[in-house]
Amino acid sequence: MTTASKPLTPQPETPAQTVLVVEDEVLIRLVIADYLRECGYRVHETANALEAVAVLQSPDVSVDIVFADVQMPGDIDGFELARWVRARHPGMRVILTSGAERSADIAATLCEAGPLLDKPYEPQGVVDRIRQLMAKAGR
Amino acid sequence: MARCLVCDALRAEGFKVAEASTLDDAGAVMGSMKVDLVLADLDQCGAAFGDWLRTRHPGARLLFSSSKSGPAAAEAQVRKPYAVGEVVTQVMRSLHDPSHR
């Protein structure tokens, strides 16, 4: 933790929306989570799908969008997490990201906004995808 | 889940917070940015983490939390289960008190 003050310049774009970032690479997670916060999103972070499920099951946390890596350590990968979210939280949106091209077809069936986001991605690309999804959902 | 709530509360107070779920992650984070204080679960990290931190990052303050009691938790300043507000208070106290390392 650092004692840096709140960001000065970023303007909140969608302040009420909450994103759960599920990414096992801590430095990637750190960058995208920070960027999303600076864009005005509330962000929760988990390092794997099991942690994500624990957060999503908590009554203390409300999530609008799950942004998850496909390849993660543990028994549940991003695809399984997306299926779990669709079954348990039908209104919740999912964006998957992966460096593996073969994942695209499967992701297309699990994500409302088309295939997954390729890695490496630009943080602004993630924000664009989130906005696209939320607009589609009328939020 | 506890980490999620504590991090939220600290961000609400204006702190920049990086989350790490393993010791390797903590090392990677600390190698990539200046960290003023580490809040760590003693039960998960072990007391050796304190030695590592003091050696590698002597400028970073450390707060250990633990659900244990007795000698095993001698270094813990935050007892679990804790209220989130209690942790935030401890963090602020530690950061603002020069003798509190």
Nutshell version of this structure?
Chain A has 139 residues and is α/β, with parallel strands linked by helices. Chain A has five helices and five strands, in the order E-H-E-H-E-H-E-H-E-H. Chain A has a five-stranded parallel sheet with strand order 2-1-3-4-5, with helices on both faces.
Question: Helices, strands, pairings?
Answer:
The complex is a heterodimer of chains A (139) and B (101).
Chain A: E1 18-22, H1 26-38, E2 42-46, H2 49-57, E3 65-69, H3 78-88, E4 93-98, H4 103-110, E5 117-118, H5 123-136
Parallel strand pairs in A: 1-2, 1-3, 3-4, 4-5
Chain B: H1 2-12, H2 23-32, E1 37-41, H3 42-45, H4 48-56, E2 61-66, E3 78-79, H5 84-96
Parallel strand pairs in B: 1-2, 2-3
Helix pairs in contact in B: 1-5
How would you explain this protein's 3D organization?
The complex is a heterodimer of chains A (139) and B (101). Chain A starts with 17 loop residues before the first strand and ends with a helix. Chain A has a 5-stranded parallel beta sheet with strand order 2-1-3-4-5, sandwiched between helices. Chain A has 139 residues and is of the alpha/beta class. In chain A, strand 1 (18-22), helix 1 and strand 2 (42-46) form a beta-alpha-beta unit. Chain A is built from 5 helices and 5 strands; from the N terminus they run E-H-E-H-E-H-E-H-E-H. Chain B is an alpha/beta fold. Chain B has a single domain (2-96), classed as 3-Layer(aba) Sandwich (Rossmann fold). In chain B, 47% of the residues lie in helices and 13% in strands. Chain B has helices at 2-12, 23-32, 42-45, 48-56, 84-96; strands at residues 37-41, 61-66, 78-79. In chain B, strands 1-2-3 form a 3-stranded parallel beta sheet, with helices on both faces. In chain B, helix 1 (2-12) packs across helix 5. The chains are: A alpha/beta (139), B alpha/beta (101). Chain A binds chain B through residues 1-6, 26-27, 29-30, 33-34, 37, 44-48, 51, 54-55, 58, 60-61, and chain B through 1, 4-5, 7-8, 10-11, 14-22, 25, 28-29, 32-39, 91, 95.
